[in-house]
Design goal:
By secondary structure, the protein is α/β, with parallel strands linked by helices. It is built from 12 helices and 8 strands. The structure holds 5,10-methenyl-6,7,8-trihydrofolic acid (MHF) and 3-methyl-2-oxobutanoic acid.
Length: 289
């Protein structure tokens, strides 16, 4: 059972099969995604925010993504696992991007990398693809540029910006990208891009007309509760459930309901009696001594 490939995603788009993608940052989360049949898993640099509690994705390093990608690949041997190239690991030079993406592919077993940006990085995208590294693009709100974009806001809200987005998407496709994430993009623009490209678009806050949809695992299942992006939907409230269960555990420990006999191992009655006798002697000696 070989893993899902980028060409498989293209075939899904051709057949009109929508692509559900989730982020995952560790082995058990990856296992759950795989068991659910999620075909695409992203080791996103959002791990800086939802796993570590940082204010942005910028502090995540290549070594961090490698560390998490290995866990995710182990938990999801069949999905197409894509890993984010972190902030500044592909912008200094094409050579630096090749070296970094090459190390990521070589040390983790992921099936591709994701880069944020449009026409300004298409040379890099083309060179990565030529080197055998499948590349997913990422347009619209690109969190690694949060400081220049002025925070998480919808992009492409005037005609120039809309035309630029469509041009960037086409340029990424021409450079050999196998898919493109559209984040915080108005529905009509995402729909036009999805129609005009042969490669699949994966939306997040980009309306219902993309070829697929990606969501952050911790948002979808109510694990991350610092803020709730408008583009997400809570399918579960896991943080609430776990907090309640932890409170119950604390009370059980306090009131001696945990651990019980099932979580413990006792001696055979005969040995137990002999031990009691021995302890009775040594403990009375200790008291007398
Ligand atoms: N947990 C998480 N989910 C994401 O989807 C995500 C991240 N983090 N970090 C990187 C970017 C940032 N993104 C965001 C962040 C916030 C909104 C958003 O809708 N914010 C609300 C305000 C939320 C609040 O402060 O309560 C808004 O209405 O603008 C959207 C996209 C998308 N990405
Ligand atoms: C929000 C998704 C698309 C992402 O880029 C990430 O998780 O880092």
């Amino acid at each position: 059972m070989h893993p899902i490939t980028p060409s498989r995603l293209a075939a899904m788009k051709d057949k009109g099969e929508r692509i559900a993608a989730l982020t995952a940052y560790d082995y058990t989360a990856a296992q759950m995604c795989e068991a659910a049949g999620i075909p695409v898993i992203l080791v996103g640099d959002t791990l800086g925010m939802v796993v570590r509690g940082e204010a942005s994705t910028l502090a995540v390093t290549l070594d961090d993504v490698i560390y998490h990608s290995r866990m995710v690949r182990r938990g999801a041997p069949h999905a197409l696992v894509i890993a984010d190239l972190p902030f500044m690991t592909y912008r200094i030079s094409v050579e630096d991007a090749l070296r970094n993406a090459g190390r990521l592919m070589q040390t983790t077993g992921v099936g591709g990398v994701k880069l944020e940006g449009g026409s300004e990085i298409t040379e890099t995208v083309a060179r990565l693809v030529q080197a055998g590294i499948p590349v997913c693009g990422h347009l619209g709100y690109t969190p690694q540029s949060t400081h220049t974009l002025g925070g998480a806001r919808v992009q492409g809200r005037n005609l120039d910006a809309a035309v630029q987005l469509i041009g960037d998407a086409k340029a990424l496709e021409a450079a050999g990208a196998f898919a493109v994430v559209l984040e915080l993009v108005p529905t009509e623009i995402a729909a036009a891009i999805s129609r005009q490209l042969d490669i699949p678009t994966i939306g997040i806050g980009a309306g219902p007309d993309c070829d697929g949809e990606i969501q952050v695992f911790h948002d979808l299942f109510g694990l991350f509760t610092d803020f709730q992006p408008r583009h997400t939907r809570r399918y579960l409230n896991v943080a609430e459930d776990i907090t309640g269960a932890a409170r119950q555990f604390k009370a059980d420990v306090a009131d001696r309901r945990f651990p019980g006999d099932e979580q413990s191992s006792a001696l055979k009655p005969e040995l137990s009696a002999r031990l009691s006798e021995y302890l009775g002697q040594t403990e009375s000696l200790a008291v007398e001594g």
